[in-house]
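Friendly challenge for the regulars: who can give me the structure tokens for this chain first? No prize, just bragging rights.
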Amino acid sequence: MGGESPRAPRRVPPAGAASRSVQEDMSDDLPDGLVVADGDARVIAFNAAAARMTKIPAESAIGRDFRDVLPLHDAEGRDWWKYLAPYEGLSTRTRHPERSLFLPGGCELLVTAAYRRDENGKVSRFTVCLRDAAHRARQERDRADLVSTVAHELRSPLTSVKGFTATLLAKWHRFNDDQKRVMLETVNADADRVTRLITELLDVSRIESGRLEMRRQVVDLPEQVRKVIAGRVAAGDPEDRFRFEERGELPEMWLDPDKIDQILGNLLENAVRHGAGTVTVMVEPDAHKEGAAVSVRDEGEGIPPEAAQRVFRQFWRGPGGNRRGGTGLGLYIVKGLVEAHGGAISVRRAPGGGAEFRFTVPAGAPDYPS
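First reply, four minutes later:
Bragging rights claimed.
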């Protein structure tokens, strides 16, 4: 026994230390800023989003009075915490609704607050949630743009449909068969235009909400390209407007054929409408990972380098886009559909001028029912 060395005492972490660490990690995953103060108004949690919004490092905030860390004031310039008196106010208060407040530098934040009280009604924890007002404003502008765009795009075809149908109903016997056919063909084309717009809006909604459903099956990608080109030619585009190139052997591709058709159709539509010359589609194996790469090139003016990061945003139409029609949603939808396959898309200047859109998709795997 005397030869045994004494066992070193085992260090036991403070109770709750591990769970606090996990909670801190989880709070850093939140998109909103989170500031938590204890019963003495000292900051005990300050997540990454709060540090980003306020430009205050988390380590300098912890342990300080939260009113000093976040010296917020309202639009009238009042010190918000003196006005609110969170620790001295009514014991029946449980939360405060969202309000626009300002940091000293003028940064606007949307602030909500909640209380936790002990059995005596004293505040034991005060939680503040911060949201970026600029981001909210951008979202509201995007919604307003969407409403405006939809209203504009719907008004024109619906006006046409209403005009022609009213004319035909009122003066049916005054028109010969050829005139009636022209009017009905116009009504039919405008109805198709409205249907396309509604389909695009549904696609945008599914992409933004993460509700895109993938129905994968083995797809012959080169054959899909040929089919889409043939559809363009059947619709009236000159056959010599398109060139298809196939390079190398592809692996077995598990893709959603309808969404691949939609991707290719939108890219070809974009090249025909906004580009010029021959539209070249090239399919080849992806050199970086197992899958395929598809490039769609035109011989037009191309896309300015400074605009390359904006082309996949909603409502982007490029130079002269308003004159050439379209909702500006097509490339946004293409990006969402490519990414839903686990792929990526980019745009650059084509080797011979014009724009080149290139997307890659992994070979994928079949979808099995859960």
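Confidence is low (pLDDT under 50) at residues 1-22. The CA atoms of residues 163 and 187 lie 9 Å apart. Your move, everyone else.
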